[in-house]
Structure formats: structure tokens, C-alpha cells
Design brief:
33% strand, mainly beta, Thrombin, subunit H
Length: 394
């Protein structure tokens, strides 16, 4: 899976829709798939990586800053066009209800952070949201918050979704990624017009408070062998301390249920007219070009406005949509763009995901977020993911 191109671009249309750790990608038509955690045991080890050492990796994770900024000269007018008839898939719990609008803003339970290990070997995070699916097990985010576009290797390691994450707390548990679905053109060519991903996740897991965890320290000549043997058991995590000593930690895990049953799931909209109002929800962090630290990434933020068409041919993107927003790029990658968001149900239709930000007027403040335009091919990728089962890991 060698990737060679960069992202870019906006375009207009009409429609709505509701609704080892890696193996080589497989493609069917426009859809590519990659397995993230190949087995229950692998998924348990991923959960242990984040829960272990008192959730040190969760708390020390930093916002992902790969391919966050689109330079001013690369954002121009232009636009997308619908490739098929408009359509919608209703949100979880909203299948038989009509949509409504509200001026008040209650934050959605569906939004959270995806965590992973970057090419630098350090823990990072992006924004993401739960979306409708047959098995209530689907997450949507930016494609380059799933695929390693920096080193051009494969999917990012230790991938999880944590809805409602706040300062190390996981109120609804940790949801380990099982299988990633993206457009073939992004998977192979890094086409920015297709920089989105839908990821199936296993049932969530929490630490079992009825059981006691423990840590073993191995210091003798057979420490490595003993630590490796213990680490093969479900719910164990091994690591080497700063003193060079091997450790094994037992983490009792309990099933937390399906993602959509716990927090709901947004619908999906495709082939929609450009120019409609949307809410954007995410966890922006990082600084503006002038050094101003406007956001901390610790709490969920929102932005509101009408989409507009744009394109960035110089970075291989000609079908993007834009939104005026002060969100900084770090942390906001993967933020959900929700059309017809209802305050009472905290549900709407996912119509985009942030893949970058731009300072379009040159005042050293980011003022625009960009997303791929969701069209019929987006729906095709979503549909493949939305009907895929995942199951439990404990």
C-alpha cells in the first residue's frame, strides 16, 4: 500500500444519508479495506496499551499534526458535483422520526477521540464520531487519521475510539478498531478528495472493578522469556521500564456493549447541495500561525456555518467543501460535519469530516476548515462498512 499523493479541493452537489495488527489491504471496486486488530487477543492487547500504566498513553497523547494545514494559495473557488441521486440514512434511534432543526446547541454524545500510535512511535489523537450501522459499531473520521500517510507504510497502530473522552476518563469504554474502509483512490494514491474512513469497532471494554489488577516485575536472567509468556495471556501488557527491567501488568477487562447502543450514531448525507448550514464538532488544539493558543483539545467544541465549494489542484484535490471556522488543525482532524442537526435528539446527518484547515486571508489565523465532498462513492464506502459485523473481545 504505497501512497504517493497529497490531499486537497472542494466541489458542490445535492443529497443526504443516515444511517500483528494489520494485514494487506483488499479492494473491491472503489472500496479498500484493512484489518486493524486481527483477533480478540490482538484487540485485548490494543486496549491494554491504552489502559495500562494508569492510562499513561491516553493521558500523554498529543493531537495529530500530519497534513493539517492547506496554504492560502491552494484554496480557490470551484467545486464538486453530485454523481448520483441524493440520499439519506437516518441516525440510530431516528429511523422512524422526521428531522427538525434547533437554534440551541447540545453537544452530541457520538463525538469523541480516536487514539493511535503515530509513525514517530508516540501516542496521538484525532476527532471522530459514531455513525449509523447495522451492528451499531461504526466510526467515521479523516482517512489520514487511520492510514499512515507520513511514512507511507500501512494503517496506524493501536487504533481505538473513545467517545466522550476527557483527561484520561473513558465514560463509555474503549472501542478497538477491527476493520477500516476507505476509497481505493485514497488508499492507493492519497487522493485528498477521498480522505475519509469508516472503521468498524469491537464492543467496548472497561476495566472490571470487581477484579484486582496487578503488576509483576522481572529482574532475573529469564525475565524476557517469563514476561513474554505472561504477556500472551488475555488482558496483559508488557513493557520495559526506564531501568531496563521488564514488567507485566494484568488488566481485568469487561465488556461494555456496542458503541451505537451506548452513545447513538449519526446519520449520513451524500450528494447534498453546497451552501447548506452545518454544525462541526471536534476537539481542536494547537496554535494559529500567529502563535495564539485558542483551544486546548480537552473539551468538545462546535462551529457553525454554510458550506462552500473550493478546490486545491496543486495538492491533488478538486472536490472539497469548505466551512468558515476558527478551528485549528491539530486535534480537529476528523471533526464531524453534521447537516440538519437536531438539538433535542443530538443527531443529524454526517456530511463531511475535517481533513485540514487554512488561513485564507493571510492574517495568520486559521479561518477555514475543509472536508471531502460526500457523494455516491462515499456512500458506497460507507455501505460496505455499515453492514460489517465485529463482535466482542472479552
Amino acid at each position: 500500500m504505497k501512497r504517493t499523493l497529497a490531499f486537497g479541493g472542494l466541489v458542490a452537489t445535492t443529497g443526504i444519508l443516515a444511517a500483528g495488527l494489520a494485514v494487506p489491504a483488499q479492494a473491491s471496486g472503489t472500496v479498500s479495506t484493512d484489518t486493524l486488530a486481527t483477533s480478540n487477543y490482538a484487540a485485548q492487547q490494543v486496549a491494554a496499551f491504552w489502559y495500562g500504566q494508569r492510562a499513561a498513553n491516553l493521558q500523554n497523547a498529543t493531537p495529530y499534526n500530519v497534513e493539517t494545514a492547506v496554504t492560502t494559495k491552494h484554496v480557490s473557488t470551484g467545486g464538486p458535483a453530485a454523481d448520483s441521486k441524493a440520499g439519506v440514512v437516518p441516525a440510530i434511534g431516528d429511523e422512524k422520526k422526521s428531522s427538525s432543526t434547533s437554534k440551541n446547541v447540545n453537544l452530541p454524545k457520538t463525538t469523541g477521540k480516536v487514539f493511535f500510535q503515530g509513525a514517530d512511535g508516540k501516542p496521538h489523537w484525532c476527532s471522530a464520531t459514531s455513525v449509523q450501522s447495522t451492528y451499531h459499531n461504526l466510526v467515521a473520521t479523516a482517512g489520514h487519521c487511520v492510514y499512515d500517510t507520513k511514512s507511507n507504510k500501512d494503517t496506524l497502530n493501536y487504533w481505538i475510539f473513545v467517545p466522550g473522552y476527557y483527561q484520561g476518563k473513558t465514560p463509555w469504554g474503549i472501542y478497538v478498531g477491527k476493520q477500516a474502509f476507505t476509497h481505493y483512490d485514497f488508499d492507493v494514491y492519497e487522493d485528498g478528495d477521498r480522505d475519509y474512513a469508516f472503521v468498524t469497532v469491537y464492543n467496548g471494554v472497561k476495566l472490571d472493578t470487581t477484579k484486582t489488577g496487578w503488576v509483576k516485575k522481572y529482574t532475573d536472567a529469564t525475565a524476557d522469556d517469563k514476561a513474554a509468556a505472561d504477556a500472551k495471556k488475555a488482558g496483559y501488557l508488557s513493557w520495559t521500564g526506564k531501568d531496563g527491567v521488564r514488567y507485566v501488568e494484568y488488566l481485568p477487562l469487561a465488556d461494555a456493549g456496542r458503541l451505537g447502543d451506548n452513545v447513538g450514531g449519526q446519520g449520513l448525507a451524500y450528494n447534498q447541495k453546497i451552501g447548506q448550514p452545518v454544525f462541526m464538532f471536534g476537539y481542536p488544539d494547537g496554535k494559529h500561525p500567529d502563535g495564539n493558543q485558542a483551544f486546548t483539545g480537552k473539551t468538545l467544541k462546535w462551529s457553525y456555518g454554510k458550506t462552500f465549494a473550493a478546490q486545491a489542484p496543486a495538492i491533488k484535490a478538486e472536490e472539497l467543501q469548505g466551512l468558515k471556522s476558527s478551528f485549528t488543525g491539530e486535534g480537529s482532524l476528523g471533526s464531524s460535519w453534521l447537516l440538519k442537526y437536531s438539538n433535542s435528539r443530538r443527531l443529524g446527518y454526517l456530511n463531511g469530516v475535517t481533513i485540514g484547515v487554512s488561513d485564507t486571508d493571510g492574517n495568520k489565523r486559521y479561518d477555514t476548515s475543509v472536508s471531502p465532498y460526500f457523494d455516491g462513492e462515499t456512500y458506497g464506502v460507507y455501505k460496505s462498512a455499515a453492514s460489517t459485523w465485529s463482535g466482542k473481545i472479552v
